[in-house]
Amino acid sequence: MTGNFLSDTTALTQRSLRHIARSPDTIITTAITPIVLMLLFVYVLGGAVEAGSDNYVNYLLPGILLITVASGISYTAYRLFLDMKGGIFERFQSMPIARSAVLWAHVLTSLVANLISLVVVVLVALAMGFRSGAGVLAWLAVAGIILLFTLALTWLAVIPGLTATSVEGASAFSYPLIFLPFISSAFVPTESMPGPVRAFAENQPVTSIIDTVRGLLAQQQVGADLWIALAWCVGLLAVAYVVARAVYHRKVR
Amino acid sequence: MSIDLQQVPGQSREPAIQVRGLHKSFQELQVLRGVDFDVAPGSVFALLGSNGAGKTTVVRILSTLLRSDAGAATVNGFDVAAQAGKVRASISLTGQFAAVDEVLSGRENLVLVARLRQQREPGRVADDLLARFALTDAANRRVATYSGGMRRRLDLAMSLVGKPPVIFLDEPTTGLDPQARLEVWQAVRELAGQGTTVLLTTQYLDEAEQLADRIAVLHEGRIIANGTLAELRRLFPPATVEYVEKQPSLEDIFLAIVGGGDTAVPTASTAPVRAAKDPR
User: Fold this and answer.
1) Which of A69, A91, B87, B252 could form a disulfide bond with B248, CB atoms 3.0-4.6 angstroms apart?
2) In angstroms, what separates the C-alpha of A151 from chain B's closest C-alpha?
């Protein structure tokens, strides 16, 4: 290993963060879809939804946060793809730097960008009447789970970022991820769904994460859901990380 | 059938680049079929060839971006396959397309490379290079606003950070206008003047003629000729004397009209011209 992993990653992360600071539209674009969905569901469809909660924004927010992350990570793939296509990636690869620093810089930048988008969405939710009496520990747990989810999806996004042959291809993979929350407990309780759909909704990763976050924010007991959510996140993270690293090493020898 | 001319005798130092029997195929396509050449330290070596001759493949193998199928190569004494890290510490690559970050300013690009090359004062290194490549005025502008020539100059400046002993320039002037081309040539000459070994690839005959100490012609995956310009000339029948009216070339005319002598890179050769124009 050549170079210094920490200082190389720091220098490269500062570079990608500058990209975000200079095109804040990517943060806005990331936040706008979830915000529009939230407005649509609360003010248009909300009246007809039986969610068993007197505050529908409170019910909705966890799913909206996951949609925010799913749309945010498509920019991670997009930025990585642009680096690969331009000559800058080869310049880095021909320099005496830690090889994995290039990927970690994009991953850390993704975490920061998503965090900002998430804060924007939460602020809009607060304006729409979202309230939670959750304590510091519960909030930390919520942040931790969403961060873990973001990290897992970010490493997943690295794969199309490295392998795509077009800009569209690099970002299109996130569409299914954005729609996954629709077939979950994000908008309506799964009990209202017909058999097979309900079976899928109750056993896919997003539902356990949403139920955990919702429970934590509502100051309820979260039992098995928490462990199922963590298992999904850690499992997805491990698989995505291993595959992304393998793809990367095949690309850069 | 290759014509290999003898290396100048008395060249006792080890070659800065040594290439032996390099082979590389992409699927069915045989790109390199046994490439051999040496580059003496501190010299400018031009790899001349048409599009698709395999020039870029050679550069990518030497700069550790690609593995060869067979053969061996050393750069600065290090094996490109077994000691890739040490090779990377010895080289800089300026690829075919300017490898600059368009979102960052010119200065930020240089500071980034200086930090990655563990320079002690990245800011000072950046400012020195900006001045040397006449980019000080544009230092804090985003690279997206730069002209093609400025981008290339920045690209070259980024390659000089940390003073690597060997520099690869892959088609450094392709796509540049004549003025920018002269600026790049001047920069390459300065590099050579400081003892840096330069391997450049080009498809322009005049570029090889202008810059290179030695020229190797790469054709269909092999080096078919390798020598100094004088040596290569000797391969042809002796020159016959003909009287031809000397017409200025279109390039001479173009540069005269647009004032090519006053281009941005300050050079030793243009300075006296400016002084002569001074009314005092």
Assistant:
1) B252
2) 25
Which residues on chain B are in Cβ contact (under 8 Å) with A18?
Answer: 103-104, 108
Residues ≥6 apart with Cβ < 8 Å to B177: B148, B149
Q: What is the DSSP string of A219-247?
A: T----HHHHHHHHHHHHHHHHHHHHHHHH
For an interface test with A, the pick among B83, B113, B116 (most A C-beta atoms closer than 10 Å) comes out as: B116
Domain limits of chain B? Answer: 3-245
Measured between alpha carbons, how far is B22 from A153 in angstroms, rounded to an integer?
42
From residue A105, how far is each of A99, A217, A218, B261 by CA, in Å? 11, 32, 35, 44
A101 contacts A3 by C-beta, under 8 angstroms: yes
- Measure in Å the smallest separation between the Cα of B7 and chain A Cα atoms: 29
Q: CATH homologous superfamily of domain B3-245?
A: P-loop containing nucleotide triphosphate hydrolases (3.40.50.300)
pLDDT band, residue A65 (cuts 50/70/90): very high
Contacts of A11 in chain B (CB under 8 A): 112, 115-116
Rounded distance between C-alpha atoms, residue A108 and residue A147, angstroms: 11
**CA dihedral for A115, A116, A121, A123, sign (positive or negative):** positive
CB-CB neighbors (< 8 A) of A96 in chain B: 85, 88-89, 117
Task: Report yes or no on whether pTM surpasses 0.95.
Answer: no
Chain B residues with beta carbon closer than 8 angstroms to that of A90: 65, 93, 95, 99
Cβ B115–A7 below 8 Å, yes or no?
A: yes
Bridge partner residues of B20 (DSSP): B72
By C-alpha distance, the chain B residue nearest A102 is B116
Which residues of chain B lie closer than 8 angstroms to A88, CB-CB? 99-101
Q: Determine how many CB atoms are found less than 10 A away from the CB of residue A169.
A: 14
Q: How far apart are CA A159 and CA A175, in angstroms?
A: 15
φ/ψ of B96, rounded to 5, equals -65, -35
Cβ–Cβ < 8 Å for A120, A27: yes
What pLDDT is recorded for position A50?
A: 66
With pLDDT > 70 as the criterion, what percentage of chain B qualifies? 87
The answer to whether residue B93 neighbours chain A at the CB level (below 8 Å) is yes
Number of domains in chain A: 1
Q: Does A11 touch chain B (CB under 8 A)?
A: yes
pLDDT of A53 reads: 64
> What residue numbers bound the domain in which A32 lies?
5-252
The answer to whether residue B272 scores a pLDDT higher than 50 is no
Tell me the average pLDDT across B70-79: 92
Which strands, in side-by-side order, build the sheet including B222-227?
B3-4, B222-227, B214-219, B44-48, B197-202, B166-170, B91-94
